[in-house]
Write a structure and sequence with these properties.
The complex is a heterodimer of chains A (139) and B (147). With 139 residues, chain A is α+β, with helices and mostly antiparallel strands. Chain A is built from 3 helices and 5 strands. Chain A has a 4-stranded mixed β-sheet with strand order 2-1-3-4, covered by helices on one side. Chain A is elongated, with a radius of gyration of 24 Å. With 147 residues, chain B is of the alpha+beta class. Chain B is built from 2 helices and 10 strands, in the order ααββββββββββ. In chain B, strands 2-1-5-6 form a 4-stranded antiparallel β-sheet, covered by helices on one side. Chain B has a 4-stranded antiparallel β-sheet with strand order 3-10-7-4, with no helix packed on it. The longest helix of chain B is centred in the first third of the chain and has 15 residues. Chain B is elongated. The mean pLDDT of chain B is 90. Classes of the chains: A alpha+beta (139), B alpha+beta (147). At the A-B interface, strand 5 of A face strand 2, strand 3, strand 7 and strand 10 of B. Strand 5 of chain A pairs antiparallel with strand 3 of chain B, so a sheet runs across the interface.
Amino acid sequence: MAAILRGKLRSFPANGHAAFLPQIRKLVFECCDRWASSQNARTFLFTRLVSLARDNPHVEIVIRQRIHREPIVRGFYVNNRDKVIPLNGLSLAEINQKVHLLLDSSGAQIKPLKRRTVESTTQSTRGIWSGLHADRPVL
Amino acid sequence: MLARLARSVPALCRAVHTPPTSTTAALELIRSQPSHYIIANFVGTKYILTPRDVLTVPRLRDVKVGDVLTLDEIHELGSREYTLRGNPTISPSRVRVQATVVEHTKGKMEFIFKKKRRKGYQKTISHKQPYTRLRIGEIEIPIEPSS
């Protein structure tokens, strides 16, 4: 009988399988009060932020002052990573797009996804063929 | 003689298993086994899916993160020894599989470099392909088909 290793007696997370937990927990907007590079970011905060907060009740939204610097938005995720996006030179629609990029992300590092269609941890359902355990072929 | 007897034992065992007469009986056989898989068509492509795995497809623009989608085009349901194949699909009242949208991401940055030699023409296009990732839920085979 094989020994049961303690390291094998753990469960692996599968967010979305039984229950789904949104991965973003906090959005921090940092902009300057005076400089023109933060103008569109300030407009976004005044006009669209409240409806954004209402539509995403799971996200904590914080506004900080960042004087004499370019405006940024920072997203904090459940996996302890954060994503920072500068907002200078962007129009209102583009800022909206970047904020939704942060809201939709899971915080995981960007990795090549072109060939990773199905990532499965389930063992093969039909079993793996073995030449030593199959019927001898009869001609 | 013993060797001939040993060779005929698997054939006798197979003869004991009569093929099921109805879909309900077939599903009972499949349900009795511990693990299952499905072959489902999703956004025009067929995938072999099992519970708990992550499916990455090109960005779906009309779904939000957290939405639960039901796979309605299941071509095959199988377990270790039994497989039920639909004609062309299995009715959704027989098998239910849901997928939750986990995230909308982009892939790694790809650089496409174009050049025509001796003509002074070259350009680099940087591109990140957007994807949607879904987590497949449990494969539910209800005991009585819901109307």
